[in-house]
Design a protein that fits this description.
2 domains; Alpha-Beta Plaits; alpha/beta; elongated; single chain
Length: 309
Amino acid sequence: MSEYILRTLGLTKKFGAVTVVNSLNLNIRKGDIYGFIGPNGAGKTTVMKVVLGLLKASAGEVELFGKTGNDEALRRVGSLIESPGLYTESTALENMKRFAILCGGTDDDIYQLLGAVGLAEVGNKRVKTFSLGMKQRLGIAIALLGRPELMVLDEPVNGLDPMGMKAMRDLIQYINKEMGVTFFISSHLLGELEKISTVYGIINKGMLVEEITADELERRCTKSLKIRCSEPKAAADIICSKFGETQFQIHDDMLDIVFDVNRSATVNKLLVDSGIWVSELGINIMSYEDYFLTRMGSMDVGRGVGQYA
């Protein structure tokens, strides 16, 4: 089993009578790019602030590098929450040197990191002249001072144009692969997270809905059969009994079931032989968006044999 970099154990945060984070159990392994996905107001930023010690948990614990209640472990974490706090009248190089006094880092580290985030040639320019994307990259370079093993990024592509988003994705993947840094990234933009995440944590209304690897998500978001028939629930039971449990949804007289579409004729014959009248049989592809909306309860999903809970 891979080493856990970050875990939360029953993490709960309340503001007065309002529960913003409810008994959350995150599991982030070394080397992950963990995409923390959920709608605005789901509790993503609050979780990150509690992890970083910026807010105190109402209940539960945060485990960093296998230990709880260890402030020293935070020295191994870099972060960028909401927006970078930069000295805009100073240059990028001066900003790096100021933060190096606090976080550690040599001159060699500073120049290497500015190069890594693509700011080597503008190191002597004042930050107030930078675009939003450049400021975000500088913030990440600062967060990398002290050589953290875990980076916590809150909505790092928020407000960026398409080119800026791609540059940020490329930077995160480079740091992950070449520098061995684990990432915990929040976003409400599924289209951006799906391009880089190796694991997803789905949060809604302060509760963790599911953790799923990118490989498993790809497997689940596969082609399925759409079968309009006389008894969709019975049809699902028959198929699962014959070929093994699988994911399915039922809407009125339509059964949408994950199955090898090349065996559609076999399924049709099985149902007809079992007394199920089939009036329509087609192929459907579940998108990542459909899957996440389903898991967050935004779609009417039938419950039954083989449905993921």
